[in-house]
Amino acid sequence: MDPRPQQPDPASRPSAAPSSAKPAWHAVEPAPPAEPVAAPSPVRAILLSAAGILLVVAVGVAVSARVGVLTLAATLAVAGSWRAVSPAGPPGLVVRSRGFDAVLCWSAAAVTTFLALTAPGLG
Predict the structure, then answer these.
(1) Local structure of residue 13 (DSSP, 8 states)
(2) Which of 18, 56, 59, 108 fits a disulfide with 72 by CB distance 3.0 to 4.6 angstroms?
(3) Is 116 within 8 Å of 63 (Cβ atoms)?
(4) 79 vs 109: CA distance, rounded Å
(5) Which long-range contacts (CB under 8 A, 24 or more apart) does 49-57 make?
(6) Alpha helix (H) ranges present in the chain?
(7) Tens of pLDDT, residues 79-116
(8) Are 70 and 52 in contact (CB under 8 A)?
(9) Where in the chain are the domains?
(10) Radius of gyration of the chain, Cα coordinates, nearest whole angstrom
C-alpha cells in the first residue's frame, strides 16, 4: 500500500484562467517613447582648443620656443581641468572616462613642461 495521498488527475481539474485572458507579460503597457535629447555641440571646445594652439604658435614665434611649449603645457592642463570638473564633459574633449581624459591631459602637460625646461637649445 502506498502511504502517499492520492493526487488528482490534471486533466480533470477545471481551468483557472479563461482562454481569452492575456498572459502576464502582456499585462503591462509599454512606456511612451522618450523624446530625443539634443547632443551638445562640440564647437565651443574645438574653438577654445584651436585658440590655445594658435596662442602657442604665436608665443613660440614671438617670444621663444621654450615659452611656447610652456604655453602648450598650460593649454593641456586647462583642458584636463575642464574635463575633470565639467559635469558631462566638453563634447570636443571627451574620449574615454573622465578620470582617464583628465589624467592623460595632465600627464601630457607635465611631460611637456619637463621637456621644455630641460631640453637644451630652446632658449
Answers:
(1) S
(2) 56
(3) no
(4) 10
(5) 49/75, 49/79, 49/92, 49/93, 52/78, 52/79
(6) 43-62, 65-85, 98-118
(7) 899 889 988 777 777 878 889 999 999 999 999 999 99
(8) no
(9) 64-123
(10) 33
